[in-house]
């Protein structure tokens, strides 16, 4: 279903030959209208890939008619040539869509085509393969193309990720790619969300930011922030329905939440999914800071891998933050057992059962009533292998 | 040589039975005077172990007559009982030294005995073994005991670490333990430095802070900061020589630098030692921030393990900092090859030879003339194994 679950969208996923292994590597999502409203959020990394610089400009207009996404190369740190390549890709998409009669209301202009790329940094894209691939993708566009598009954006992902929230008479759907380099200021990933709700660009922007702040922004697989993170939300208006803001925002958040969980579950080499819930913090910012710091502690991530309820590593991590707390009031529960109470030894650690993939850590700061949850995973030899055996 | 290279010190290292594996686990360093000046720096972790809280108080007096160090347990997050145990240990050391006639000028008082502990967090020390061990250590004190003391403070260290700087007629010596949890605000470790120079406590404090700021504070093995970090510098004055400040500070820095390098070379599971040199930064703070951020990037650390000159991961890391730079002016050299120039592809990455243990990364921010160097190591499956296979 993916991005074509909502009415008013077509999509395609094809093999352009960008990836050397012959897997699908080019996806196209087209908004057939009548509305072409869009919003986007991008990596907060100051080293931004060419497609991010391009798409940020496109989104300023509040209209996107098509999104082209390639795997097999990030087009990051590629200088002026990299940016020219992104521009040329957008031009080719508009031209090819118009030539094939997919123009819809008003046709396609390059300045309304968002571009996303993912893969190795510092390599120019093989434009001799990518541009002909655009024609092939346009030829393959379909109202049922969502799955193929989701498959074509995979890199080290073991599965493709899609989600759909269907409400009474409108829908939000989406696809995501991401497996490594998942970190705040957006988990490293590409995400395209679509809806047939009749919603204008400012409302899309608000709903998208409200959703990403508590979903993708709180996924932190390995503390590494990408140069290419992009999340786009496109509205076709094809349902003719304009939902209440709260209902619309909830549906967007539900899809973002589901896709974010799928990202963590597919994190490179992971054997455990860790939910870190920080409670009784003085502020939500404190809770997020503490959650992130715990999520990035390699020693704790190793301990979880070894099914060792090593709460000392949680306290060590909390101690490096600037959050409000008193060391002798801290509490830590692992899988429901309060192994640390009042900053010291609590319930018997042998009571903790860590055999299952899901691990739940609660850090109680005893400093207020704010809370936040961060999702991460364990650190494994397989992660090291995946990220050392070849360039990625 | 170690802490007994300087005149006016005796030391011992014995097996008290704290460690279950029967390895040496208790060290004692005694300043026999005539001076008993001392300075110390401690972890900046807000969750501090009982011995850190105790020793911080001791050092406020500017005099330390003895340091007792145990491995086999960190005595961190152990509540009031843990603090009482530290206090009892200091009392036992003073009592035992006085009883054995090791009092020297003025004898020993508990309030001048520093205590250091290292090992697992959240476990009370076996005082029934530790206290008799103090008597045994006192009985073993010797002017040649430095090596044994250095051996007794090892945890996951594969080698014991000592260093000596001998000047015309005075000496600075030291020992260190540390292998994992090495991070800023002091690398995780215990260090005792001794000198027979006749130097007062304020001068010791200045020299120690000047030295640790550019040595131990810039060692970052795994981004994890300990609850027990302690670096002590004790002066006996036994040489009768008061060196110029610059000469003394240089010798202290030389010993700290050497011990810091030994810590990195023994980092858990590491196969590569990585020197990250940040140049042309706007400020030294910027350079340190960028160096640390690169040092903590798991993806880069994996790439170095795989001998892959993946400069894109260096740029991704730099992009997450608040340092002054323009993305299109950044440069990165790996082992002398400028693989990234002006934020894009530079010299041929195939020219980079990464077969050797030492890896040198230069990040050029092109934003000023400040610089800093951070030392770290790669991320390996062995690190994961060492930190997941058992509690540590």
UniProtKB/TrEMBL annotation, chains A, B:
Pathway: Amino-acid biosynthesis; L-arginine biosynthesis; N(2)-acetyl-L-ornithine from L-glutamate: step 1/4; Amino-acid biosynthesis; L-arginine biosynthesis; L-ornithine and N-acetyl-L-glutamate from L-glutamate and N(2)-acetyl-L-ornithine (cyclic): step 1/1. Its main location: cytoplasm. Pfam families: ArgJ. Its EC number is 2.3.1.35, 2.3.1.1. The active site is at residue 188. Keywords: Acyltransferase, Amino-acid biosynthesis, Arginine biosynthesis, Autocatalytic cleavage, Cytoplasm, Multifunctional enzyme, Transferase. It catalyses: N(2)-acetyl-L-ornithine + L-glutamate = N-acetyl-L-glutamate + L-ornithine; L-glutamate + acetyl-CoA = N-acetyl-L-glutamate + CoA + H(+). It is found in: Cytoplasm. The keyword Nucleotide-binding does not apply. The keyword Transmembrane does not apply. Substrate binds at residues 155, 177, 188, 268, 387, 392. The record marks 118-119 as: Involved in the stabilization of negative charge on the oxyanion by the formation of the oxyanion hole. Coiled coil: none annotated. SUPFAM superfamilies: DmpA/ArgJ-like. InterPro entries: Arg_biosynth_ArgJ, ArgJ-like_dom_sf, ArgJ_beta_C. Heterotetramer of two alpha and two beta chains. Belongs to the ArgJ family. Catalyzes two activities which are involved in the cyclic version of arginine biosynthesis: the synthesis of N-acetylglutamate from glutamate and acetyl-CoA as the acetyl donor, and of ornithine by transacetylation between N(2)-acetylornithine and glutamate. HAMAP family: ArgJ. This is Arginine biosynthesis bifunctional protein ArgJ.
């Amino acid at each position: 279903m993916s991005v074509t679950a909502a009415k008013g969208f077509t999509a395609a996923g094809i093999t352009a030959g960008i990836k050397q292994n012959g897997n699908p590597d080019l996806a196209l999502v087209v908004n057939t209208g009548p509305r072409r409203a869009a919003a986007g959020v991008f990596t907060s990394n100051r080293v931004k890939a060419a497609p991010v610089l391009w798409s940020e400009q496109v989104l300023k207009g509040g209209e996107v008619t098509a999104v082209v996404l390639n795997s097999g190369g990030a087009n990051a740190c590629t200088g002026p040539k990299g940016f020219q390549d992104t521009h040329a890709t957008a031009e080719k998409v508009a031209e090819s869509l118009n030539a094939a009669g997919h123009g819809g209301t008003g046709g396609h202009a390059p300045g309304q085509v968002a571009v996303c790329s993912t893969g190795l940094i510092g390599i120019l894209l093989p434009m001799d393969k990518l541009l002909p691939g655009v024609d092939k993708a346009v030829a393959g566009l379909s109202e049922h193309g969502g799955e193929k598009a989701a498959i074509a954006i995979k890199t080290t992902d073991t599965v493709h990720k899609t989600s759909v929230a269907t409400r009474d008479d409108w829908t939000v759907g989406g696809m995501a790619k991401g497996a490594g380099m998942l970190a705040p200021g957006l988990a490293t990933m590409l995400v395209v969300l679509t809806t047939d709700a009749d919603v204008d660009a400012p409302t899309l922007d608000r709903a998208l930011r409200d959703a990403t702040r508590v979903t993708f922004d709180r996924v932190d697989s390995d503390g590494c922030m990408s140069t290419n993170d992009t999340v786009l939300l496109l509205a076709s208006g094809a349902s003719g329905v304009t939902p209440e803001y709260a209902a619309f925002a909830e549906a967007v958040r539900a899809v973002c939440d589901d896709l974010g969980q799928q990202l963590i579950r597919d994190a490179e080499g992971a054997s455990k999914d860790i939910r870190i819930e920080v409670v009784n913090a003085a502020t939500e910012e404190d809770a997020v800071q503490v959650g992130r710091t715990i999520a990035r502690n390699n020693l704790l991530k190793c301990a979880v891998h070894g099914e060792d309820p090593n709460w000392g590593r949680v306290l060590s991590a909390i101690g490096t933050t600037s959050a409000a707390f008193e060391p002798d009031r801290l509490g830590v529960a692992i899988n429901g057992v309060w192994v640390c109470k009042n900053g010291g030894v609590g319930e018997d650690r042998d009571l903790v059962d860590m055999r299952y993939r899901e691990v739940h850590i609660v850090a109680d700061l005893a400093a207020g009533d704010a809370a936040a949850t961060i999702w991460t995973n364990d650190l494994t030899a397989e992660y090291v292998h995946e990220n050392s055996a070849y360039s990625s």
